[in-house]
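Running low. Any example?
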Amino acid sequence: MKTINKLVLALFFFGTLLVKAEDEIPPPPGGGGTGGVGPGGAASPIDMYVYLLSIVAVTFIIYYTKKLKSQKA
């Protein structure tokens, strides 16, 4: 049960970081220009892979939790 609580806490923590990360994109520079990326938006290529990275992170957490549990037994 302790492992499940730690896993839920870790998922909640990383989920909070993901949500907060979207709010901190800096505003486009002034002057009304388009810049080098498009209509003045900041480039964030990691946004395309957020779901994939989340799945990989959860997989690693489960794998290492089971590995640690089997070493203790």
Observations:
- The radius of gyration is 19 Å.
- Residues 38 and 69 are 49 Å apart (CA to CA).
